[in-house]
Amino acid sequence: MPTLSTTEAAETLARGVEKVKPSDLPEIYSELFPEEAPVSPPVASEIVEHIRSGLEAEEIVDLWNVVFPQDRNVWYNEETNSIHFNEEVAGYVD
Predict the structure, then answer these.
(1) Longest Cα separation, the chain
(2) What share of the chain is helix, strand, coil (3-state, %, to 5)?
């Protein structure tokens, strides 16, 4: 059960964005700025700068699923101010 502080999670996202294919940048940009259409192709360094300048926990969770689509069960724990991911979900009945 990986758990990261919001600061660590934002840095992990920033490093992840630095490694994505350029074709994935428009989707990441759209997740961060849903009301704005990019005028030109988004630039990874500008997105990374925005991520490092501070995101709300909910923004981190939403963006996490775009940058790391293989991760599941991403959620924010308000009590510990941490991001959790890839946890087993127990107690659900089909």
Answers:
(1) 47
(2) 50, 10, 45
pTM of the model: 0.84
Helix orientation angle between 25-32 and 57-67, rounded to the nearest 10 degrees: 160
**pLDDT, tens digit, for every residue of 1-53?**
588 999 999 999 999 999 999 999 999 999 999 998 776 888 999 999 999 99
Nearest partner of 72 among 89, 57, 58, judged by Cα:
89
Containing 45, the helix (H) or strand (E) segment is helix 44-52
Contact 63, 31 (CB under 8 A): yes
Helix (H, G, I), strand (E, B) or coil at 55: coil
